[in-house]
Amino acid sequence: MSKNKKLGYIVLAISFVLFNVIAFAVPTDKTSAFWIAYAFTVIAFSAQIFIWNLAFSKAGTLKSKFLGLPIIHVGIVYLIIQLVAFGVFLALPWIANWISIISCAVILGGSGICLITSEVGREEIARVEEKVQRKISAIKGLQADVELIAETQSDAAAKEALEALADKLKYSDPMSDDSLVPIEDNISAKITSLKTQPTADILNSVKQIEMLLLERNNKSKLLK
């Protein structure tokens, strides 16, 4: 358990103790409305543990931790609103039980909906980021392959052409699209074939790859 998480639980425990002290120290009648609001508030405190665990359970990176903050924000707002509602029922113990039940249930349900939507949003962002990273990795992988092939070349012209191709791959748009897959597969196949080609054929192959790369990048711009 991280230090910040431990401190968070300590603050939550202290807040829960203070809540109970205030709840039972205030000289008001402990009616059914009070106990209903008290029970929902205890649930709100307990829910924080679940919410915090949910927010940080997938937080392997700094970015994923940042994406978990909206979920924690929902939990804290939920707790604050529930505490306010409890304060109202504490100060006005004569309020009808059904008002207490409906009010607290609406707060719990609304917070649950917000929590679910926040988690769905985080998962969607993470999915898109993963997809983007895979696409970027594919382009970077082709660039690395060309650079390695260039290192093995003793012919100056072939080496220079391969290094230029590597630069063009480096500055190509990393984003892809389903319509670009055939061209990208063709580029990948031709780069793979460079490893076994004789030096005399490399310059011609590099030109073909550059033409395919230009076509791919132009189509990529049109898709934006």
Summarize the structure.
The chain has 224 residues and is an all-alpha fold. The protein has two domains: 3-130; 152-222. It has helices at residues 3-25, 32-57, 62-91, 97-151, 156-170, 181-194, 199-222.
What does this structure look like?
- It is built from 7 helices and no strands.
- The chain has helices spanning 3-25, 32-57, 62-91, 97-151, 156-170, 181-194, 199-222.
- α2 (32-57) packs antiparallel against α3.
- The longest helix is centred in the middle third of the chain and has 55 residues, at 97-151.
* Biggest sheet statistics: none
- The coarse silhouette is rod-shaped
**How many distinct helices?**
7
What portion of the residues fall into strands of 2 or more residues? Answer: under 5%
Search tags:
224 residues, mainly alpha, 7 helices, 83% helix
Strand and helix map with partners:
Elements: H1 3-25, H2 32-57, H3 62-91, H4 97-151, H5 156-170, H6 181-194, H7 199-222
